Amino acid sequence: MALAQEPTPGADVRDEDDALTLLFLCCHPALSPPSQLALTLRAVCGLTSAEIAAAFLVPEATMAQRIGRAKATIADAGGRFALPPDDERAARLGVVLHVLYLMFNEGYTATSGERLQRRELAREAIRLTRMAHALLPGDGEVAGLLALMLLTEARSRARESLDGTLIPLAEQDRLGWDGALLEEGVQLIQETLSRAPLGPYQLQAAIAAVHAEAPSAADTDWRQVLELYDLLHALSPSPVVTLNRAVAVAMVDGPRAGLAGLEALSGEPRLASQHRLASVRAHLHEMAGDTQAAVAEYEDAARRTTSIPEQRYLRARAERLRADVDNPTTAPTTG
Fold first, then answer.
1. CATH homologous superfamily of 221-326
2. 306 φ, ψ (degrees, to nearest 5)
3. Where are the alpha helices (DSSP H) in 109-238?
4. What is the pLDDT of residues 79-91, one digit of tens each?
């Protein structure tokens, strides 16, 4: 599917953009929320069944069947290609925002392939979210999601070297961050938090804003990040929130505390086949100075990811640490 172009200034987004209309159509009330998400990611975002399955942490065959059934259900329900009336729009909004969130994430870090980022997909997610914000300017979660995207996208150019090598947040040159996007995102989330009921996207944007406002990685207010993750976990608990919170715990209370926070995820089926849990464990073991455990986890994470840039990064970390073990005179690196 060709991505739509940026709307011209003054264009009426209610009438001018078919992608937003299709987005709401795919979130038809006749579908279950998982089917709404899957169909939208396929029809609007153009993601493959494999990419959508990875985002949902389910097998590809399961996702393909879900998408097929969703198409048939909408046809049987007589869905029309038009924005839903106001009274239906709010009911579909939560799924629409989740779709845009997953779409942006796939653009920011591609699930598979040679490219670390699919910038055109991330930009399209931002464009559609801007339009949703124009349609519903008073909704705090729409504004929160837009702020989160802007603050995250601002770091995209600094995330990889010229040869495509992944650069983690702590090692990025912050002068390469997009100052205009950072300023817009920070201002938007500050205004939203002051007027709207608190929601998960707003909290994630607030966490991103803490990182954005730190002049260096060492100056990050990790205690504030942890407090925000505690709020997010209380409001919208999930395995991914637990995973990310463990990093904040490690930065505040030490890597062993962070590793202890990951124990609850050891039997989590939605993370069992993914690389993220092993990658975080590796990072925390490296912080703790347990080089052998870190090497094993980095290698496990590299085997699990289908992203070539992530594979290269994870294997490079493992090889560097293995060299430290083989050469005891080399000072260990703690990340």
1. Tetratricopeptide repeat domain (1.25.40.10)
2. -105, 5
3. 119-135, 140-153, 179-193, 200-213, 222-235
4. 665 667 777 777 7
